[in-house]
Amino acid sequence: MTTSQRMIKNLYRDSVALMQFSEKLRALEGIKQASAVMATENNISLLVEAGLLAAAVPPSPNDLLIVVEASDETTAGSALDSAEAMLKAKSADSGEGGVRRVPPRSIEMGLESMPSANFVLISSPGEYAAAEARKALQLGLHVMMFSDNVSMEEEIPLKQYAREHDLLVMGPDCGTAIINGIPLGFANVVRRGNIGVVAASGTGLQQVTSLIDRFGGGITQAIGTGGHDLKSEVGGITMLQGIEALTKDKATKVILLVSKPPSSDVMNKVLDKARQSKKPVVVEFIGADPAGITGGNIFGVKTLEDAAFASVLISKGKTVKKFSSILPAKYRSLVKPAQKRLKKGQKYIRGLFSGGTFCYETVLLLSESLGKVYSNTPIKKEEKIPNVWESLEHTVIDLGDDLFTQGRPHPMIDFRLRNERIVQEAKDPATAVILLDIVLGFGSNMDPAGELIPAIQQAQKIASKAKRNIVFVGSVCGTESDPQNLSLQESRLQEAGVILTESNAQAARLAAAIVDRS
Amino acid sequence: MVNTLFEQDLQVINVGLSSFAESIQQTGGKSLQLDWRPPAAGNRETGMSLALLVNNERVEAANRMAFERFMSAQPVLTGVGKAVETIPGLGERTLLHAGPPIEWGRMCGPMQGAMIGAILFENWAQDQNSARRLAESGEIKFSPCHHYGAVGPMSGVISPSMPVWVVKNQDRGNFSFSNMNEGLGKVLRFGANDASVIERLKWMASTLGPVMNAAISQLGGIELRPIIAQALHMGDECHNRNAAASSLLFKRIAPALLRTGALQTEMAKVLEFIAGNDHFFLNISMASCKAMLDAAHGVEYSTLVTAMARNGVEFGIRMSGTGDRWFTAPAPMVDGLFFPGYSQADAAPDLGDSAITETAGIGGFAMGAAPAIVQFVGGTPQDAIAYTREMYHITLGVNGGFTLPPLNFDSAPTGIDARKVVDTGIAPVINTGIAHKDAGVGQVGAGITRAPLECFDQAIRILQL
Q1: Residues of A in contact with B403 (CB under 8 A)
Q2: Among residues B284, B305, B334, which one ends one of the domains?
Q3: Which of A91, B50, B59, B439 is the most exposed place for a label (fewest CB within 10 A)?
Q4: The pTM is what?
């Protein structure tokens, strides 16, 4: 038998509570006697009389004294440890029914209720987003900044800090990501698999991940970088970190990178990092010539669809052949019947887009076969549409442009603006094809088909009064697991007469073929 | 670390659109929606200063040190002395007041009344008018109690001849002081200054002070933390309710007093005086808190708040890492219950140094232990617990020495972290009496108020790493 003691400074419990507590200690295995008291002179002499204290210790009435008599020293030591832990533990809030609680207000306060949080998603107004991201990083948490209007002066130090601490900052202005199978922001429910994606464009990311799902593949992670990441000033910090993480990630067999073509310094950094990866890396620099990128473990591709398809092929161990830019046979057969519905004066495509990258890719592809394509996001300066509210020849409009979203929800959520524009285009006798993107997934409207169909019907009614007919072409970006369900949305749109292709690129090519009657 | 994330369950704290938090949950992830608002009333500069301080190693280390000094403090009541002989540096013609610095012309009614009373008590003037002229003349130095290690409730006026409590922090050897509580009704701290008030003050100086000093000497000093700890178990929060602590002090003092050999009539009067004032312990509680907090003051980079005080016009705070600078905002009104015949229209803004108790983790912070207090704002015992629970979110730690029975004996939330106040927008809660806005009417009610967030915003903006 051995006795041990411990003094806990500045801890007060009343004598009744301490008697109960002493009982608990006596019940511990290997403990013969135990007593916890405030270290007053009186209590100390009682303990000495009881033989639990070999000699009197100086009294310190603010401190709590625990003594135990145990079979051996180890048992005594661990009993004192657990006694101290029990005394210092915060009680479960039993017996406080009806007490009003303050909901968590700050990230740090959030950690009190979710102590193992590892990620912060920020969609506050842009002016406050950088400070919130900074706090998250300093607390050791990864960050996605959905918020836009964050300056590069704010973005760069955040990303540098993140890199130094091996943390991820996706964004600012990162609309989409899928981490550990969980869609974040505007994102689709995509099958898990072995393809890891890093993308600078939100809708680009949605398109490739949805198509990977459609083509039977799956993803490990889909990392968004935000729109500024590949600018020279930022230097692709997040994309480089993403490539590195996916390279280390055992579950990732293929890496897919998506971005508009970065400046040459950043492009070189990204491609160097991709080469170091040794894993196959599919690179879609939208609009850049894939031939200049391909080589070694790197496969350059031209469209988002090709990017998804190549990734799936490689992920299943198949070889990638060169992709054709020609419309596949299954869509070619649709061209003639569509053309037959058009009057002579119906010459132009009117593309009305909710996704920025869908719009951009469409302008690129249409320009190849049709020449001039006017847009609010043109490739050539001289093709900038003079008045965004009025189409001119072939026109492709990004309705997600800041110009249209001031004081109004994004067109993926609120269809009013696009529906009005559909009706407006129908009134124009020169309109042949109205080209659309339909984006499913979390964040988007819960029933895009239901929103669009009345406008499509109204447009056809207006056209038919003028003895015309309008060809609607589009693609639905989504998966079967999305809350809106891909098949359901597609079949309803098809019933309403919309010609659908699997991808945005094919929709553009099909539309181009229809108006190309040379 | 990025790769570690890939191997963990994704657990997301969501700042902003709640639909994002919902979709994470719908797809099997874990998310927590914050009730977020821009910190510092949307001031971006302060917001970024704050962000840089969050979980910063230097600040964390400084706060650990400051908190440790606070917790190690052992305040002991060592005696009562004449202010001018006891408070270091107090000049012959200095009058101390509650709160941050304020000049005569801007003082609220009760404080001006108290100053006139103090001048009369000191015999520096013979009547009200000449006392007022003297105060206006600039011949008298007005200075905050806090600048002299002192604290005083309400007007907090301490004049050179007044008796003051002396509290010593045995751990670091620093001293703090407070005036002695006069009771309720027509009293100096509420601005009353008629003959009865002056007469009482003179008796306190001539008899109460010396007799108490002798009794305390008999006891070799009185450790204050055990009294506060026990009072918290008896329904006090040691700011607006001191009934238990005053009784506990009485129990300690009475036998010692009888051994001092003082005149029996004097002893009887002293004991009657203490027994008749449930707030007798308040000033001792305040000095005790001041001694503990002063020990934690002056730690570079620390965001621990070491003083909250009001002068009836402004509310001011001091922070450990920003030296003796005050951060002030207009004093708020108190939300409370009024005595019969009075209303909010009669109330002075928040007044007094007594918020030092909340700064030290008792008072409003321990309201859960004092459900009787919450009745002042028509609340329930659950509301009292809720106030205390709320304060855990803005404090650096808990005080294991002060436990709260209705909270399952949890330790009181202690050590206000200015960062957390700014980040959460949760303002420290303060229990307090309400003074009449005119001098000399006295207390007209009691209730609850909150420290203005603006003070904490300023402190955080100023702190440079």
Answers
A1: 12-13
A2: B284
A3: A91
A4: 0.89
